[in-house]
Amino acid sequence: MKIQAMGNRGRVPSGEGRRVAVFGAYGHTGRFVVDELLRRNFVPVAIGRDGRRLAAAGFAERGVAIVQATADDAASLDRAFENVVAVINCAGPFLDTAKAVASAAMRARIHYLDVTAEQASAQDTFDSFDSASREAGVVVLPAMGFYGGLGDLLATAAAGDWEAVDEIRIGIALDSWHPTQGTRVTGTRNTFRRQVIAGGQLSPLPHPPEQTSWAFAEPFGEQDVVELPFSEVVLVERHLRTTELHTYLNLAPLRDLRDASTPAPQPSDVSGRSAQRFLVHATARSGHQMRHAMASGRDIYAVSAPLVCEAVQRILDGAGGDAGAYAPGEMFEPASFLEALAPTHLNFEVGRSLHALRA
Q1: Against a cut of 0.85, is the pTM above it?
Q2: Which is deepest, 54, 80, 145, 167, by most CB within 10 Å?
Q3: What CATH class has 146-300+335-358?
Q4: How far apart are CA 241 and CA 109, in angstroms?
């Protein structure tokens, strides 16, 4: 089924006053998403389970409607989604919220997007809502954030016009990781064994995971890394034919994450972004040929906002495709998508690979 009520075809510069719900709006990432929607002239509707935190977030003072709703109260979600065209779910753990919020989106016949890094949540969303979204004439797009969507877009850009690849590897370098409380709660809740693609199929991450080194571009350079896959594995597996897919994260941010005394992220400028730097490098290999795509920027939480809001805008503009559940790299042309975010939100390049994993 074709997507319903998409408006004019082609890229437009603003949200044109369309109402988009943000579930988990007063959370760290949710606030960035509300800000980005406002910047694009959408009309955000800030939704959260705690009325006091909604009121304290200052949304009403900025003219943003606030609605109290919870994932375990279907009627409250139905009321919250009245007269909106899409919902962005920012409330983790997504294992606890995605199914309820996406179900309400299907009842309301609106598009559903989230920013989950949780493999099990993304897979369950695909399994549960592909058919329902086609019947409703809407798009379901899980994991449209830093962990997940960005890696999938970069892997797809690197693979380019190759119909199949022998191997995709994604290296993530962070100069630090000051986790939000939501990240810590999700880490405790998400006990599912992580998956990779090995031998052409989803397979459990080996224990212990591989540790090696990656020659990142500057300013990171050579980094010790450990294999640590996120939701990009579930996304890539849906639409790219690859024999192997492995994701690596450098060790320094993991030490921050595992230290209970590491504070939450702090703003370093008026935008609210932290000073954290990131670089994500995807390589695709076919035989002896290698291609790469790379993105860099600041603040892994903040950059999820332009990623998911760009997706919303393209879906509403009819630039994605038919209704259904999709991976980002399956729905969008990845290079044009990431170039639309450069250089304000990230830097992006694609070409032949000069840096690769060291054996």
Answers
A1: yes
A2: 145
A3: alpha beta
A4: 32
Helices (H), 261-343: 304-316, 328-331, 334-339
Sequence ranges of the domains in the chain: 19-145+305-333, 146-300+335-358
Structure tokens at 345: 């939100």
Residue 270 in contact with residue 333, Cβ under 8 Å?
Answer: no
Non-local CB neighbours of 286 within 8 Å, separated by 6+ positions: 162, 164, 165, 166
List the beta strands (DSSP E) in 69-207.
86-89, 111-114, 139-141, 165-174, 195-198, 201-204
The dihedral built from the CA positions of residue 309, 315, 318 and 320, taken in this order, carries a sign that is positive
Compute the 3-state secondary structure of the chain and give helix, strand, coil in percent, each to the nearest 5.
35, 25, 40
Handedness of CA 309, 96, 249, 163 (dihedral sign): negative
| Equal fold, 19-145+305-333 vs 146-300+335-358 | no
CA 137 to CA 166: how far, in whole Å? 35
67 and 43 Cβ atoms separated by less than 8 Å: no
Cα(5)–Cα(169) distance, rounded to whole angstroms?
38
Our CA angle for 268, 274, 279, nearest 5°, is 135
CATH of 19-145+305-333, one of 3.40.50.300, 3.30.413.10, 3.30.1050.10, 3.40.50.720: 3.40.50.720
Q: Write down the residue that tokens 């559903």 correspond to.
A: 112
213-260 residue pLDDT tens: 999 999 999 999 999 999 999 999 999 999 999 999 999 999 999 999
Tell me the mean pLDDT in the region 298-324.
94
* Integer Cα distance of 244 and 167 in angstroms: 5
Cβ-based neighbours of 57, under 8 Å, separated by 6 or more: 25, 26, 31, 46, 66
